[in-house]
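[Discussion] Sanity-checking designs against the backbone

I'm trying to build intuition for which residues belong where. Below is a structure token string of 362 positions. I'd appreciate it if someone posts a full sequence so I can compare it with mine line by line.
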């Protein structure tokens, strides 16, 4: 390249690097102060650091010599929409777009500089795509399940009418989310139960989830699907149930929880917390896992495994968003009374400001 061309490329790289770094910092502040999400804040910081390390081979001195703000025609070009932002989320959205565009410029124009590692920039660009999607969707994911605290897992029933009455009464007693979970029921039985429960959830403004079976969730227009670590990944499940459906993921350690966030989960189940009557486990991550999740992750998280009246308060003291139960309600002498007790105790543990709000809905 000629000297003027090299100088122009350096100016582009300098300007793009500055925009990308500023934009990433803006996104980091949104994660830190608006979402209060330590995990996403850390991701933004790490991306900023890695991008800076990748650009360092282009000597700062050369970049500074190429910089010429006073003669840059772009400094006087303004778009009216850039002069106003509606809220903090719109600031983060604009920053995300700016970062992605800038990093693409770095990647492309860096190819004209001998020895510059454009492939590393490409890798960072894909990380930014994932981070931006997670960051910008987090607020809506949190809001969607903000007041959905009591999550009930229940099996199918050969008597669909009885199943329907049970679902309706449990929703009315304070259950926010019901998951149909039955490893032994036939596909036809699951479909029939899911169909009536989906209809009830829509009418009552509640949430109905199908365990594992994304196909049945989609066929019955359920609120969403829940998958485990050995089932369909989030992306595959979402292709079946649709972009607007809820996809939840079971997690058993903090690394799985963080992976679920970046995979696009709408909520995570965390456990097993205690020994359970409905499922056997080799180990129990317990309350310490819940504390790790609430410290690092803003995504709605539900404690699961052995939750009952004796340990609900200590579980909620970890700061977890809600609890998922089965036998503690369904195995009691009066499931409706038990559901109401769980709901009231959850609200008392969360605080009066939240307990005065309505239950979660779609």
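Best answer:
Here's mine. Compare freely.
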């Amino acid at each position: 390249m000629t000297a003027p061309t090299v100088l122009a490329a350096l100016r582009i790289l300098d300007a793009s690097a500055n925009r990308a770094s500023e934009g990433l910092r803006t996104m980091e502040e949104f994660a830190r102060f608006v979402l209060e999400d330590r995990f996403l804040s850390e991701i933004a910081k790490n991306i900023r650091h890695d991008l800076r390390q990748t650009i360092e081979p282009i000597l700062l001195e050369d970049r500074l010599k190429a910089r010429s703000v006073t003669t840059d025609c772009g400094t006087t070009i303004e778009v009216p929409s850039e002069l106003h932002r509606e809220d903090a989320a719109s600031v983060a959205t604009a920053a995300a777009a700016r970062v992605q565009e800038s990093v693409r410029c770095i990647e492309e124009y860096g190819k004209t500089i001998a020895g510059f590692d454009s492939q590393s920039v490409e890798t960072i660009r894909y990380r930014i795509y994932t981070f931006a999607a997670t960051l910008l969707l987090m607020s809506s994911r949190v809001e969607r399940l903000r007041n959905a605290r009591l999550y009930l897992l229940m099996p199918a029933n050969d008597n669909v009418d009885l199943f329907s009455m049970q679902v309706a009464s449990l929703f009315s007693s304070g259950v926010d989310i019901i998951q149909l979970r039955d490893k032994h029921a036939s596909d036809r039985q699951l479909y029939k139960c899911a169909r009536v429960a989906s209809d009830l959830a829509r009418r009552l403004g509640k949430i109905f989830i199908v365990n594992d079976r994304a196909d049945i969730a989609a066929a019955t227009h359920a609120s969403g699907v829940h998958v485990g670590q050995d089932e369909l990944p989030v992306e595959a499940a979402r292709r079946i149930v649709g972009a607007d459906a809820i996809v939840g993921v079971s997690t058993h350690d903090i690394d799985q929880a963080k992976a679920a966030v970046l995979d696009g989960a709408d909520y995570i189940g965390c456990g097993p917390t205690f020994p359970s009557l409905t499922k056997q486990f080799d180990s129990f991550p317990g309350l310490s896992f819940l504390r790790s999740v609430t410290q690092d992750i803003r995504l709605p998280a539900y404690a699961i495994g052995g939750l009952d009246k004796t340990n609900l308060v200590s579980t909620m003291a970890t700061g977890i968003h809600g609890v998922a139960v089965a036998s503690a309600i369904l195995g009691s002498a009066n499931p409706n009374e038990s559901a109401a007790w769980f709901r009231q105790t959850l609200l008392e543990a969360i605080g009066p400001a939240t307990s005065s709000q309505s239950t979660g809905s779609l």
